[in-house]
Amino acid sequence: MRTAVLALVGAAAASAQMLQNWVPGICGAGSLTPTVGVGCGVLGSDLKMYAPPEASQYKIKPIIQNMPCMPQCYIPGHETDPECQYCVYVNTLYPDQPFKVPKNVFVTEWTGSSTCFEHTSMESWDNLAQQTGHTSSHSGWFSWHSTTTLNFMNRYFKDMASLSMLVQRYIYSSIVLFPQQQLDPDFETYISILPTEFNSSTQAAFFEFINNYGTHYIDSAFMGGSAVLTSFFESCLLSTMSGQWVYKESGGSFFGIFNHDHKHASGFNKTSCLYYENSNSSVNLYGGNGAKWGDFNWTHPVSPNFTKDWADTLYSDQIPAVFNLQPLPLIFPAQYSKQAVALNTSIQAYFDVIGAKNDAIAKSMGPRQNPKPSWCKDPNPPAAYYDSVSGDNPNCSNSTESLAVAADPPPLPKCPNMLAELEVRRRQAEEVALALELGIAPPTFK
Predict the structure, then answer these.
(1) CA distance 45 to 435
(2) How far apart, in whole angstroms, are the C-alpha atoms of residue 329 and residue 327?
(3) I need a surface site. Which of 50, 96, 192, 319 has the fewest CB within 10 A?
(4) Closest Cα to residue 66, out of 92, 12, 103?
(5) What Gene Ontology molecular-function terms does this entry list (predicted)?
(6) Which of 278, 256, 297, 296 shows the shortest CA–CA distance to 406?
(7) Which of the residue ranges 15-19, 185-189, 331-335 would you say has the lowest mean pLDDT?
């Protein structure tokens, strides 16, 4: 009896000490709300540019079954036990916030720059369609039917606008699924009853599956947060000035709206009147408490000290800032190979339907008929627009004191090829998995 009581007391004490929070990036494992992460199905056609998959958009149905380590591995002091390797993750920047890690997931700390920037410009609707076509991996966007895509179509045809996007990423860690995953039981049951052929009579069943589980699943991600500038600008700026000029000016909009005092803002935190008056820019925050703030813009810029306050909330509420997708058919077990082939065909058909809808929308909006500005294609645009500082020119009467001529700024720290970096980490996960299977010491990585 005494032994049983002591065992219960010991179990209660162990339970009280056990780590409670799963590492960020595990599908459906959020402590407060369901989260999108590795092992989640994703509907590729609905992703937004440079944004994480939205938890509210999905039913958070996991594709992969999370496999917890043994309970004692989550009690402080046991993380170094041989059977508990990789079961606890601690970021060196936050040593007092350890996380539980499932045994089917490999987590490593990101040791690169804490922040980096990535920029892209879309000159035309055709350019967007080419860059957002069929692909199985990307840095956070490839959709045809997202709100960003439809907004761009509207602005492109009605306002003669092109699109520039600048993203500042905050990265803490990478999270990768180990090879040889076990499927979620509900998911496996569903694929077992899928038809073995795709045709007109089975299309509805496959499209229902896609609407429930998606077209792809997330197999790896960099976790953190991001600030994304979306800038629609008069298309003539590309031919009149240059793509580099647009990059500089959109950078000026970013720092002018979001972080005027940022260490990288020198030379970027000034925007010319020409760009200011012929563009519409906004900044959105992803991760941390960013969602509650909505859009920031020139009339609603970020207040002093806000950036740091927001960044301080990121570590406890991270999002997949960069993620890699794999087609769902690739993970089907061998006994469902016919269903996998049929699903692959249905995904192509699903995207074709969406592509046709978007083409129809584009045709209904085009051709572009708005008159071009008087300065369009002029290699030397009016000095009244370009050279005047805010307050000196009535054309910039609504601008802020940050508007001025921007000298060539130093280059922003560019993000490395993040998908290539994720590929490196997937190979590392394979090496670790093989070592654990063979019962030998896993390799160490710098």
Answers:
(1) 38
(2) 6
(3) 96
(4) 103
(5) wide pore channel activity
(6) 256
(7) 15-19
Query: What would the mean pLDDT of 296-315 be, rounded to a whole number?
Result: 84
Distance CA 343, CA 321 (A): 28
Closest CA relative to residue 140, chosen from 55, 44, 227? 44
Q: Band of the pLDDT at 23, cuts 50, 70, 90? A: very high
- Which residue in 223, 210, 202, 430 sits closest to 315, CA to CA? 223
> Alpha-carbon distance 408 to 245, whole Å?
9
- Considering only residues 266 and 43, tell me which one the structure prediction assigns the higher pLDDT: 43
Q: What is the pLDDT of residues 254-281, one digit of tens each?
A: 877 886 445 444 444 456 777 778 888 8
At residue 39, what is the residue type? G
**In the numeric block, which tokens belong to residue 309?**
């306050």
Residue 123 scores a pLDDT above 70 = no
136 within 8 A of 214, measured Cβ to Cβ: no
Contact of 209 with 194, CB cutoff 8 Å: yes
The pLDDT of residue 408? 56
Residues 6 or more apart in contact with residue 285 via CB below 8 angstroms: 225, 226, 227, 228, 291, 293, 296, 310
> In degrees to the nearest 10, what's the CA dihedral of 49, 140, 31, 184?
120
Tell me the β-bridge partners of 390.
Answer: none
3-state secondary structure the chain: CHHHHHHHHHHHHHHHHCCCCECCCECCCCCCCCCCCECEEECHHHCCCCCCCCHHHCCCCECECCCCCCHHHHCCCCCCCHHHCCCEECCCCCCCCCEECCCCEEEEECCCCCEEEEEEEECCHHHHHHHCCCCCCCCCCCCCCCHHHHHHHHHHHHCCEEEEEEEEEEEEEEEEECCCCCECHHHHHHHHCCCCCCCCCCHHHHHHHHHHHCCEEEEEEEEEEEEEEEEEEECHHHHHCCHHHHHHHHHHHHHHHCCCCCCCCCCCCCECHHHHHCEEEEEEEECCCHHHHCCEECCECCCCCHHHHHHCCCCCCCEEEEEEEEEHHHHCCHHHHHHHHHHHHHHHHHHHHHHHHHHHHHHHHCCCCCCCCCCCCCCCCCHHHHCCCCCCCHHHCCCCCCECCCCCCCCCCECCCHHHHHHHHHHHHHHHHHHHHHCCCCCCCC
> What span, in angstroms and rounded, lies between the C-alpha atoms of 123 and 246?
11
Cα Rg of the chain (Å, integer): 25
Residue 383 has a pLDDT of 47
- Amino acid (1-letter code) at residue 260: H
